[in-house]
Amino acid sequence: MTVARERDATASVASAMLERLVQQFASPYDFLRELVQNAIDAQSDSCEVALSMHRDGGGDRVVFEIAVTDAGSGMDEAIIDDQFTRMFASQKTRDLTMAGGFGVGFVSVFAWEPEVVLVQTGRRDEGWEIEFDAEAAYVKRRLVDPIEGTCVRLLRRGHASEYAGIALAVRRSLHRWCRFCPIAIDFCDLGDGHEASARRERIHERRPGGEPLEAVHASADTTIVVSFTSEPRAVLLRHGLVLAQGEPQHVLPALASQHAGSLDHLDVWASSPSLSTDIGRDRVLHDAGRRLIEQRIGDMIGQLGERALAEIRQLVESAAPWDEERQRQYTFLHAHVACERSIPARVLDTHPLFRTRDGATNLLALRKAARWGVVSRTSPEAAELDVLTGVVPELWASDDDEEPWLAPLLASRKLHCASREQLVREVSPAAGELDPGVARACALLVDAGVAASVRRGHLGGDGRLPLGVGLPGATTHAVVPVVPLSIREPVPLWLDDRHPLYAIGACMPDHDITVGPAALALAITTILRGDLEAVRRAIDDELARQKVPRRR
Predict the structure, then answer these.
(1) Does any domain span residue 190?
(2) Phi then psi dihedrals of residue 68, to 5 deg
(3) Which of 96, 127, 279, 411 supports an S-S bond with 143, CB 3.0-4.6 Å?
(4) Domain tally for the chain?
(5) 279 and 196, same structural domain?
């Protein structure tokens, strides 16, 4: 094989290898991340990305230019020859070897399909220009005047109508990968070069920290922050550059299997040199470094739940006034504790989680105090309602507490919750006795041990509630079944005679209990979640006394 043919073969291999490397990058704009990474490695304190276009003849033909400039340490001839260009072919020699990896990231610039890439760099009173063509072959020239830092310019022909799309893609790529960088990143949208159309934007997002409740790990170059959030997210970084981001269960699948539910309300931010990626930097490798980071995150999730419980306890046991700020913090903490499925049930049962007028209480005490299986929630400003004492415990909680955490937590202990306004109604006794058909039904309820007594009255002003349960020792208030009640004792009942249920019972014949009274008694018992079997027995006993055949 002649020397010329050997060179041609080498060039062919070089081109194929370069193409494969370029294909490793998911987006043609990923080169921006790589050049920013180079700026960070060069210890630059800033990096500017400028986009512009220049007229190319008539019509809307233009040349797009993307220039990435840093103020880092730059490169001298030795670095250029021994590291930077080792992955590319010289236009003079067409020689390519794969020694070294310095240029792997730089390869990504060719994914944008530039026609020319111009690199100007300098170090220690040297200045150099390396010009690459579309095939990545290059020419190196010495600059007359030395420069500091590095500037990479990509040039590509196109149409002016494409400019807005390119600007958007550049901005999105910088924000996606570089918004947490430790150096200043500026995007300069220069347009056609007129000063009036130029726009400068700082690409920056505040690093996590200072949240109401968070766990922080900081050692050497590794920083991990785990905090509660309403918008779950996980971000993995190295030296401030984003490696992976998205929903935590997708970014951290190993943790998702260990902490089911917990990741649904967490913001996880982890930056560490221990995290490694594939050559395209689009996939974080599942190696020992990643496993170490995930183990630390898992430990921090447990710590966060413990701290939330501790802060709730501090809130409910404090003698300080229960103001709006304390209520907001209480709601915030409880909403996130509700997502922490790793907290043992015994801890939730015995930990002071609730505030009452008498002080802090826990689930076990609450369950014991809720004789009818229902809990009232009210505000600290509401006047105390003595008639509820010993039957329906009252918690200090707001409307914002009920659905996110309070109702599900109580339901897990077979308790139900409603606001005092919904649950407790003032009773206005109605004149007259019960209608005969209703009276027969109520007699069955008394015989079955469901009711101690039954009276007619008005529960509130709208007549939409069929009945209420009278509170012991009180004739002015009743608990209405807006949530399921669990009553296992005879109780005084109030029937609202404006409700259709009462009207139906009133028009039923009282001489035949198998038609109206029995049906009404069973309906009332169902509403109360009482002992239906006991009512059926009472009906059978009454039928036996009347010697009426039982209906099946």
Answers:
(1) yes
(2) -115, 115
(3) 127
(4) 3
(5) no
For residue 206, the tally of other CB atoms under 10 A from its CB is 8
The residue written with tokens 């009743």 in the block is 478
Task: Please indicate, yes or no, whether residues 141 and 232 belong to a single structural domain of this protein.
Answer: no
In a domain, 334, yes or no: no
Q: How far apart are CA 75 and CA 316, in angstroms?
A: 62
> CA 129 to CA 400: how far, in whole Å?
63
d(CA 480, CA 242): 56
Does the pLDDT at position 27 exceed 90? no
Looking up residue 276, the CATH number of its domain turns out to be: 3.30.230
Where does the pLDDT of residue 5 fall: very low under 50, low under 70, confident under 90, or very high at 90 and above? Answer: very low
436-447 helix and 532-546 helix, angle to the nearest 10 degrees: 110
Domain annotation covers residue 333? no
Question: DSSP letter at 387?
Answer: G
DSSP state string for 105-163: TGGGGGGG--SEEEEEEEETTEEEEEEEETTS-EEEEE-SS---EEEEEEEEEEEGGGH
**Hey, what amino acid is at 340?**
E
More confident residue, 343 or 24: 343
Structure tokens at 288: 């020992």
User: What is the number of residues in the chain?
Assistant: 552
- The percentage of residues in the chain with a pLDDT greater than 70, rounded to a whole number, is 89
Could you tell me what percent of the chain has a pLDDT over 90? 58
Residue 340 to residues 306, 330, 393, 420, Cα–Cα distance (Å): 10, 16, 26, 28
Same domain, 261 and 382: no
Backbone angles phi, psi at 317, to 5 degrees: -95, -5
**Domain termination residue (choose one: 142, 175, 202):** 202
The answer on 255 and 190 residing in a single domain is no
134 and 257 housed in the same domain: no
28, part of any domain: yes
* Residues 402 and 369 both lie in one domain: yes
315-356 pLDDT, tens digit each: 999 989 888 899 999 999 998 888 887 788 899 999 999 999
Could you tell me how many helices (H) and strands (E) the chain has, helices first? 17, 23
